[in-house]
Write a structure and sequence with these properties.
Glutaredoxin, 4-stranded mixed beta sheet, 8 helices, elongated
Length: about 180
């Protein structure tokens, strides 16, 4: 999927540059892109937008009508640009790239925490304190239970992975023994 991210990045960067001077605009674009990404990710929507019988104007109207949020001129122009360049289905990647830029500006990042067992709030907060020191960022946790880890946790922050799970240790032992 790196190829799609590469195509989506210029759109996200352009939107971010236009909105980064105003915190309110940044938040509203982030929310709108998230909604657009959800709609564009639906199978039926993807099929409808790929229908060769539709003109670009019809695609814009169709997509706009599926959104709960009313669109201002800038948002409508953005959708028209995406439809014209046949990039409307890249909205999930554009939203992801936009959020990465937003987090970078704020000095924050999302921490995907995979745990073998459910973690309570106190455990998550204790883990976050250590992770924030390690990564030097304010982290927003997203905790998922993954029993296949057997024990421990795996943390993903951006492109960095910290894996202290039993599964990872067993894999390391296996590699050592077979080498």
């Amino acid at each position: 999927m790196a190829e799609l991210s590469t195509i989506a990045r210029p759109y996200a960067e352009a939107l971010f540059a236009a909105a980064s001077n105003d915190k309110t605009a940044l938040e509203s674009w982030s929310a709108l892109l998230s909604e657009m990404a959800q709609v564009a990710g639906l199978h039926d929507v993807r099929e409808a937008l790929n229908d060769p019988r539709l003109e670009n104007r019809q695609r814009v109207e169709l997509f706009s009508s599926l959104l709960k949020t009313s669109l201002d001129d800038k948002a409508r122009n953005f959708i028209e640009l995406l439809v014209e360049n046949q990039r409307i289905l890249l909205l999930p990647q554009i939203a992801e790239q936009f959020d990465l830029l937003k987090h970078q500006l704020e000095g924050t990042a999302e921490a995907l925490i995979f745990s073998a067992f459910p973690l309570d709030d106190a455990q998550v907060n204790e883990l976050l304190v250590g992770l924030e020191k390690k990564f030097g960022l304010k982290l927003k946790p997203n905790v998922t239970v993954d029993p296949s880890l057997i024990g421990g946790v795996r943390v993903v922050v951006g492109d960095q992975v910290l894996d202290t799970s039993v599964q990872a240790r067993l894999a390391s032992m296996r590699d050592t023994l077979t080498a």
